[in-house]
Amino acid sequence: MNTANFLSLPAAMFPEQEILVFGNSRATYGETLSRVRRLASALAQRGVGPGARVAAIGTNSHRYVELYYAAATLGATFVPLNYRAKIHELEHMIGQADPRVLCFEERYRSLVDEVLPNVRLGPAGLSRVTLDGDGSRDESIEQLIGGAVSEAEEVDVEETDTSILMYTSGTTSLPKGVLLTFGDFTAYVVGTVEMADGEPRGAALNCVPLYHIAGATNLMTSIWTGRKLVLMTQFEPEEWLETVQREGITHAFVVPTMLKKILDHPRFATYDLSSLTNLSYGGAPMPLPVIRRALQSFPATCGFVNAFGQTETTSTLTVLGPDDHRLTGDAARDEIVLRRLTSIGRPLPDVEIKIADEAGATLPPNEIGEILVRTPRVMKGYAGDVEGGARREPDGFLHTRDLGYIDDEGYVFLVGRADDMIIRGGENIAPAEVEGILLSHSAVDEVAVVGIPSLEWGETVAAAVVLRPGMSATPSELTEFCRSRLASFKKPEVIEILVELPRNPLGKILRKELRKQLEPR
Predict the structure, then answer these.
(1) Residue 314 within a domain
(2) Same domain? 289 vs 371
(3) Are residues 475 and 330 located together in one domain of the fold?
(4) What is the pLDDT of residues 210-259, one digit of tens each?
(5) Does an H or E element contain 55, and which?
(6) 441: domain range?
(7) pLDDT in tens, 155-170
């Protein structure tokens, strides 16, 4: 199935239904489809066809969504680029992708001008198009749409053809290009939501970048199921609250840092959030104090969902659903719920998960090992030569490099990345265990634990701590707090109080930077 059908099929039946909102722009299925097909026609005139690549550098907008569907219409591969990437990372991504067309927002013109001269492209050449420009220097999307003489129809594609070449965040190395196929997205979208039927399905607020797998799948699931897609340029807590209230948002996805900023907004309680029925979160581990506070602060009618997945698996693998978040006041049941809130839930129906030791043997419940997953929507592979990428076994299981365990009820618990495991004198220490203890201290707001070099032990435990506003604690107090609650070899030997933790744009802690910061000078 061509993913362009996620738009064209509902549009054929419900052309007057409003489906896409961005700022003052509001469009129906029919209007969106017409713009997409005219844009596709114009791109075809510029050499875009099956297998060609169309890259984009820009924040969220209706034109960005239209560009994806136009590329899919032609059977082309869409390449969403991280506008926060460093110069050498963008050079790597654009050079490897070799796009036929590069679309960019005007705010990134100087970035594009700096990057392109250092990129070796193929003989077909590159067309530059601005997403929001006036056409005075480069052609604009609006010029392409306005000047199109026809509307392109969807081409037939193979399930194994690449729909999106999506680059990972590259927190420890150059970004890896993940090849996700039309079949991968079809399996995820059709298996997750029902096709639109003309009845209201609510409104989905997207505030995560569309270059991230959560944003990409959102622009497909919402439009396929008939849920009005409301786009924020970038996340900002007050705008998020205002948009939920104004648009009657029913579904939203946030990363943990976003949720905390929403809760911390001084006028949080003044906004009407009663329309929210589903608030999903993921992208990074959710601190237990944050989700507990959210459960107390959002309307009781809002169901919370922890969605865990990877780019390499076309988004979600496991889900911790609304019932798993519901506290009832029954002490025994609530104790179980609170324990499960530290999990990532249970696998989706099309996902198999096992925990394996270093030799590959499957481990029994409650034993820690590497999480391996098998699903029909595992990536086609990586673009180019990749070192350190996810490895796939002959039986189809993918190595996630995440460490965790499965309890007796089938809930999956993360304990950290395999690369983050601290080995002190031959003893393995999971950062998540130490972080959990420090987070239980009343003065601690955020924490990250890493291993730092030690001549005596190989590695020792170091912790960076952010304190709650108005609270105080010294490193020695926190060390003593850990000493009474952890085995002696697990307690941090270095604790630093920081104003904030280093994170990437989606909230993942940059542990490589943190190690450098905490290493003895």
Answers:
(1) yes
(2) no
(3) no
(4) 999 999 999 999 999 999 999 999 999 999 999 999 999 999 999 888 99
(5) strand 53-57
(6) 421-518
(7) 999 999 999 999 986 5
